Amino acid sequence: MLSTKKWKCIPELEALGKLYCIDGSLFPVITNMLWAEYTSKHQALKIHMCFDLNRMIAVKFIIGEGNLSSRQALREMLEAGITYIADRGYMCFQLFNDIQKATSYFVCRKKNNLVYQVIKPLTVQLPVAVQRLFLNVTDEQICCTNDPNQNVYRLVKFQVGTEIFFLLSNRFDLSTFQIICIYAYRWQIERE
Questions:
Q1: Could you say which of 6, 63, 184, 192 has the lowest number of CB atoms within 10 Å?
Q2: How far apart are CA 183 and CA 167, in angstroms?
Q3: Looking at domain 8-191, what is its CATH homologous superfamily?
Q4: In sequence order, what E strands does 15-134 have?
């Protein structure tokens, strides 16, 4: 039934392509569910989900034991042409390489210990109306020194209030503001 359902189009999101927020959630279960091992003393289920922002609906999910890797679950759900939006827990150069091999994209918040070299600065593109909200914005093409594949990435840095964000992506076709907005939409999966 869902495959034949006509979904309302959100033009602002459609212009950015197919966007999936990804996340995993852990749920404790009863102790005699031994197959759902999480620690030596606890059992849990982990649900990994792809939430389609364009249609505002969960479209893929994997349910497994509490130790099921979020990165591995994403590898199993990869689909060509999708931009996957993730938080720091998904940051992994091999995963990013696998996403690119699947002809997909990602926008991911980076971990604090990323070591990289700037290849070249990119033009920061922000609408005038939001320039006061986002401070110290930079947009750069980079190469990470510890990436065994030596892929070229885009790093968007900005500050909101006192918090500083670093977003890593392989989408070079979007403006700085579009990359920031894509990551901001990630919070839709936290609400569902």
A1: 6
A2: 8
A3: Transposase Inhibitor Protein From Tn5; Chain A, domain 1 (3.90.350.10)
A4: 18-28, 44-52, 57-65, 82-86, 105-109, 116-121
Residue 175, pLDDT > 90, answer: yes
Q: Which stretches of the chain are DSSP H helices? A: 11-14, 70-77, 93-101, 176-184, 187-191
Burial class of 120 by CB neighbour count within 10 A (0 to 12, 13 to 18, 19+): exposed
What value does the mean pLDDT take over residues 116-137? 94
Of 56 and 172, the structure prediction assigns the larger pLDDT to 172
The position carrying tokens 């593109």 is: 125
**Structural domain boundaries of the chain?**
8-191
Report CA Rg, the chain.
18
Mean predicted confidence (pLDDT) in 88-112: 94
pTM of the model: 0.88
How many other β-carbons are positioned within 10 Å of the β-carbon of residue 77? 18
Helix (H, G, I), strand (E, B), or coil: what is residue 18?
Answer: strand
With residues binned 3-state (H G I as helix, E B as strand, rest as coil), the percentages for the chain, rounded to 5, are 25, 40, 40
- Rounded to whole angstroms, the Cα distance separating 64 from 100 reads 25
**Rounded mean pLDDT, 164-191:** 87
